[in-house]
Recover the amino acids of this structure.
């Protein structure tokens, strides 16, 4: 497999409504098709242009040239840099969890990359990030469940058995976070039986470990 126009099209189709520009599509190609990227690097012989720049130009040119052919392909020229994406009405709304996972994946990719290139990107990067408006679904949780679980824990994490790391400024209570064992998004109950009081470290591990 090589980084071809078909592969670029497959990436866009596989991530409908996700917005790309030259840099982000390169990152996604490297992340999702590392063997194809390595093959491109091994065969690269253009002294005037790095392989990354060559791939970005290829993807960008392909999108611009095929805007009229694929009605699902949308290009927003009002954005700087120009953004493009594949439209789909069947795609679910991107969640904050999805965005956090993507950031973690891209950071891991950055760590694997060249230190010098990363620092060069940092020197050129805008230090004021773009603002995004995100629609979030939240659950109206029962405060009695939270209270009962915290009372049951008595200031001790119910995972690692460590004392709560600090006291809340507001009421001097032990700081523990109430976590649903089966997530509410997976039809878990908002009940004492389906909840546990965790220290911040254990809570993060439950979600990201």
């Amino acid at each position: 497999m090589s980084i071809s126009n078909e592969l670029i099209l497959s990436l866009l189709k596989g991530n409908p409504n996700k917005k790309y520009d030259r840099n982000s599509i390169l990152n996604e190609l490297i992340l999702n098709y590392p063997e194809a990227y390595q093959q491109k690097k091994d065969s690269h012989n253009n002294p005037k242009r790095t392989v990354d720049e060559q791939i970005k130009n290829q993807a960008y040119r392909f999108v611009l040239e095929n805007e009229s052919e694929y009605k699902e392909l949308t290009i927003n020229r009002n954005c700087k840099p120009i953004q493009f994406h594949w439209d789909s009405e069947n795609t679910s709304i991107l969640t904050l969890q999805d965005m956090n996972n993507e950031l973690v994946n891209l950071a891991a990719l950055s760590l694997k990359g060249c230190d010098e290139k990363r620092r060069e990107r940092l020197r050129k990067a805008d230090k004021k990030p773009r603002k995004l408006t995100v629609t979030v679904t939240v659950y109206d949780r029962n405060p009695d469940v939270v209270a009962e679980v915290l009372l049951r824990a008595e200031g001790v994490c119910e995972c690692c058995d460590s004392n709560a790391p600090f006291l809340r400024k507001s009421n001097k209570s032990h700081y523990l976070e109430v976590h649903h064992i089966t997530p509410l998004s997976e039809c878990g109950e908002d009940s004492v039986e389906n909840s546990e009081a965790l220290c911040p470290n254990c809570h993060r591990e439950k979600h990201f470990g």
